[in-house]
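Chapter review: from sequence to fold.
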Amino acid sequence: MKKEQKPDLVSIIIPVKNEGKHIQNTLHSLFETKTGYPLEVIVVDDHSTDGCCKFLEKTKDDRIRLIFADNVGVAMARNIGAEQAKGTYIIFCDAHLFFVDYWIDRLLEPIEKGVVDVTNPGIANAANPRAVGYGYTWNGKLEAKWNGPKRKMFESALLAAGCMAMAKRTFDDIGGFDRGFRIWGRSDDEISLKLWLFGYRCAVIPNVRVQHVFRTGKSVPFKFTWDDVNYNMMRMAYSHFNEKRIEKCKKLIKHSNPEQIIRELFKSDVLEQRKRYFAKRTYDDDWYMEKFNIPF
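The token string follows.
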């Protein structure tokens, strides 16, 4: 009789920035829900000033590792966590989620079967659980628009990195989240776009739902600027888009000086990155916009 193969280790990566009690609630929910997978949890405290991760400094739970970053932003915090991950699979989670039984198993099943490469659950508003987004897409101004519900798994142009599952080898192959991004903005968009262009398939599993605490305005617990958001948009554009779309992106810059944004961008490695990405990718941005009927 064959020995039953043990399930692969799953690494849950949680970036944290001034989360207050949310990170405690998220970890409690994570360990209270059922799964058939062994877990490790990597919490990346990105220079929180509210002491939200202090309780982890003396934890005796060997499933949890706390590591520190120095105000690097959400994209790099996720990369730092992934670099420490030992799991065959990684799931990026925000620090303000509530889970359901076997959510991990159901997100990983189509990945293990080779049907798709990256998955999202439905993401419900914790304050109004009937309001659920199922991945998202762009409109003609590159503004996010949540997908509506479907009964079966479906492909999505963009996935939310707040609860995103994939094999670690997939993440490593694409180079992770953009390493030149600033504090916040467009990191979910960029990695989803890159995954598709590099030949990977992103899908939503609509019968799996997690609850997410949404924060806006003054309730956002960290500071970022329009310069950060616009810089990240243009870095994404120069990394992946043709010249016509780059010019369209420049016209979308608001509340910032476009010339200054481009000057700062050109001091970075973005043009070298563009060459690498164009050489590696399977599809171009025309293919992507046509596939998902994005009018941009």
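Two observations follow directly from the output. The CA atoms of residues 234 and 244 lie 13 Å apart. The mean pLDDT is 95.
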